[in-house]
Amino acid sequence: MRLRTLPIFFAFFVMGFVDAVGTLVGFATEKYGLSGFMGQLLVFFGFIAFALFSVPGGVLMDKRGKKFLMLLSLAIVLAGQVVPASGGGSYLMLASAIFFMGIGMTLLQVAGNPIMRDVSEEGRYSRNLTFAQFIKGLGSIAGPALAVALAVPDDRWASIVRVYRVFAVVVAVTLVGLALLRVDEKKGEDKPPASIGSSFALLGNPYILTMILGLFLYVGAEVGVNANLATFLKGRFDFDIAGLATGGIAFFFLSLTVGRLVGSAVLSFMSARQFLVVTAVLSVLGTLGIMLGSKEIAVASIFVTGLGFGNIFPLIFSILIDRMPERSAELSGLLCMAIAGGALIPPVMGALKDGVGLTAMMAVPFVSCLYILFLALRAAREAKA
Known about the structure:
Elements: H1 6-15, H2 21-32, H3 36-64, H4 66-86, H5 91-119, H6 125-149, H7 156-179, H8 196-201, H9 206-237, H10 244-266, H11 272-292, H12 295-309, H13 312-323, H14 328-337, H15 341-355, H16 358-384
Helix pairs in contact: 1-5, 1-6, 1-7, 2-3, 3-4, 3-5, 3-14, 4-5, 4-7, 5-6, 5-14, 6-7, 6-10, 6-13, 9-10, 9-13, 9-14, 9-15, 9-16, 10-12, 11-12, 11-13, 11-16, 13-14, 15-16
């Protein structure tokens, strides 16, 4: 790992902070006496930013550069953290702050994934991007861990205020480190400026459309498994919802983290296209085992699923960017917009559970993984051609 990549890896750690919104929502529900709908609306404000700002962010990145967009995104995240770090204010102020952080996180994803290519040595983009996802996973763990470490007795909201003050310091340090970093950005020659229209026009390319659909389905499958795993384990095997079933989610996140760390090592000697086949096969087998297996097989399959899921995002992202590096700004915007799959697939799973049953619910991530396996096999064939 070169020293010049460190500020980018820190930026990925910051990306993981968005997962701390879940912790924030729980505390905010108690503080403001929110209904379930109003509490979950806070999550929506953070998530909808990916659908609204990813493509415009790619256009801005094409005009002003990846480093500029990363600096802007970190500044927006820092500004959004002021409200929870200072006490929260009203519900409207907190919702606005979460939406602001969501915008920042969206732009950070749009710029962070392709800029890793600019600071990576030749042939190490996929590996570094996969390791960056591992670092991001550590950021996701940091929120709940800090909430425990900085807990204030009998005042849960004071605990989250402390957490966001620490987050603000880390974001500020990352912002300064990135500002001092020199990045030789790779730009396409003889390419017209990016626009909203030119970005969406890329979807007319069947290869791009199928890869972005694959990322959309993957994110939806990961969020769907996370959101519904406890319900599935409770309904299928009568696991205690507050104990073993919830522990299954922690097991899933552990396997995701392990998968990303292992993936960054495997990519030292295996190509991204070959490794995508491996991760897709693991994902298919894992989701199949959860869906149809016995209690023991289902639990083991949770870990297998996480190992597979952990590397799909950076692999699809890097394979597509490497195929068309001159259109990285527009492609990054479209790929990050696909993260909205996490908002759309879980309700489909919930509807199937209500109308058909638990097996049908878990069939959604299984079918999604089959599609990703199709993409992986096609990419591997193209590499041999």
